[in-house]
Specification:
Elements: H1 2-15, E1 18-19, H2 20-29, H3 32-35, H4 40-52, E2 56-62, E3 70-75, H5 77-92, H6 97-105, H7 112-138, H8 145-173
Antiparallel strand pairs: 1-3, 2-3
Organism: Actinokineospora spheciospongiae
InterPro entries: Metal_resp_DNA-bind_regulator (IPR052509), Tscrpt_reg_PadR_N (IPR005149), WH-like_DNA-bd_sf (IPR036388), WH_DNA-bd_sf (IPR036390)
Protein name: Transcriptional regulator, PadR family
């Protein structure tokens, strides 16, 4: 739910106001159903939940195309704070690839210096993870050999994650990777 919530809040933030079908269309155009494991129904659920939590507020109602009226929402200040929190968490904390993918899509909501600091935090957390996994492999106790293959897999995944984060951090430190403006299909809001 958090990756879906992050992406819904991000689209609402950039769009200024949108209804569920617009959010869904935007996220499907990004293939978020694949890399963030988002289902259309979860988008509508995330919108309703965010509204109930005070992260979105109803802006207007529009006639639907032959169906029910469409409710357009606008992100609240609390919603922007939650969006930033989720992006920070997804970028800095290893272990949830769906959150990381969503955070990468939402990088433009953070400034360059903060992205660099969060990547450094991620790299350090991955160092700690690799240390624990190597210790487990070195002294597996009663763990069956075939189960230790999980540790081998996780070491490889953590290394790949760490290499990616270090490479992105290097690019940012060298002045590369200009964080883009919001997608052209959306109109950014002014904070």
């Amino acid at each position: 739910m958090s990756a879906t919530r992050m992406l819904v809040l991000g689209v609402m933030h950039w769009a200024g106001r949108a209804h569920g079908y617009q959010v869904r269309t935007e996220l499907v155009s990004w293939s978020a159903d694949t890399w963030a494991r988002i289902k259309p129904g979860s988008i509508y659920h995330a919108i309703r939940k965010a509204a109930a939590d005070g992260l979105l507020e109803q802006d207007s109602t529009e006639p639907g195309d032959g169906g029910p009226d469409r409710v357009a929402y606008r992100i609240t200040p609390e919603g922007r704070a939650e969006l930033h929190r989720l992006v920070r968490e997804g970028l800095s904390t290893p272990g949830d690839p769906w959150m990381l993918n969503a955070a990468i899509a939402m990088l433009p909501v953070l400034d360059r210096d903060e992205v660099r600091a969060l990547l450094a935090t991620r790299i350090k957390a991955l160092d700690e993870t690799l240390t624990r996994l190597r210790e487990w492999r070195a002294d597996p106790g009663q763990t069956p050999e075939h189960v230790l293959e999980q540790a081998n897999l996780w070491v490889g995944q953590a290394r790949a994650d760490q290499e990616w984060a270090a490479s992105l951090l290097d690019r940012l430190n060298a002045g590369g990777l200009q964080l883009p403006q919001p997608p052209a299909s959306l109109h950014p809001t002014r904070d």
